[in-house]
Amino acid sequence: MSVKAKKHLGQHFLTDESIAEKIADSLSLKDYKHVLEIGPGMGVLTKYLLKKDITTHVIEIDTESVEYLKANYLNLADRVIEQDFLKYDITQVFGEQPFAIIGNYPYNISSQIVFKTLEMRDQIPEFSGMFQKEVAQRICSKEGSKVYGILSVLTQAFYDAEYLFTVPPSVFNPPPKVDSGVLLLTRKENYTLPCDETLFFKVVKQGFQQRRKTLRNSLKTFNLSDNLKANVIFGKRPEQLSVEEFITLAQLIENDTQE
């Protein structure tokens, strides 16, 4: 029995065992006892996680894959969660315990998986896995890069992002039309921002929505004082600002609205 890849679920099954093992080995396994694999498919990555000194859970939306996993990985059967990760309250499984996330993520929802991870950052010290190469590069890119954007800044505010290696289409069934990239996110030791975090998210998103404009123009809706708008930082475009400068920007706006 094997599982047929379903286009509407964005399924491309990894067939290279050495790459699967390499992805599994990217986790440090420090400071947590549980790992959640998203979209395990037929378990090519799962088998290497099960060899490690950690409790592996998998979450899978495809009923056919769920049946395959339960039939072929008997020691995993009671830890197969048949749910949509984006819609499921994972605290029903882990409570408040920390856990890592890993997976060969469906390309069509990979950014949403990262955003949900950011929402749960208090519980997720590590995140590893495979994305479309361009998305992995965007998450890890620094200021000044053409692909640097919302996903880059918000992720790197809380996690150190490292691009690990590139994976060619030929090691998948069916092969995707693009290269893939594997990355590792390691939560920062101090991941609490010295500014209002809701405001920070809003500033980053609004700044990049009009990325060709200076921040003085793209952030007009914040009704900033003339004195603040004269600050040199507002004459820059969003892709010129580092994560630290975006935090400073949020602090400036926060203080300006309180005056």
Distinct helical segment count: 11
Nearest-integer average pLDDT:
93
Question: Whole-number radius of gyration?
Answer: 20 Å
| Strand proportion | 15-25%
The CA-CA distance between the termini, in Å, is 67 Å
* CATH superfamily membership of the largest domain: Vaccinia Virus protein VP39
Major beta-sheet overview? 7 strands, mixed
- Summed up, the domain count is 2
Give the class from helix and strand content and strand pairing. Answer: alpha/beta
Helix percent band? 25-40%
CATH architecture of the largest domain: 3-Layer(aba) Sandwich
Broad CATH class of the largest domain: Alpha Beta
Runs in which pLDDT lies below 50 for 5 or more consecutive residues are none
CATH topology of the largest domain: Rossmann fold
Shape: elongated
Strand and helix order: EHEHEHEHEHEHHEEEHHHH
Care to count the β-strands?
Answer: 9
Widest sheet, order of strands:
4-3-2-5-6-9-7
Q: What does this protein look like?
A:
The structure is a single chain. This protein has 259 residues and is an alpha/beta fold. It folds into two domains: 181 residues, Vaccinia Virus protein VP39 (Rossmann fold), CATH 3.40.50; 62 residues, Helicase, Ruva Protein, domain 3, CATH 1.10.8. The protein contains eleven helices and nine strands. The chain has a seven-stranded mixed sheet with strand order 4-3-2-5-6-9-7, sandwiched between helices. Strand 2, helix 2 and strand 3 form a beta-alpha-beta unit. The model has no long low-confidence stretch (mean pLDDT 93).
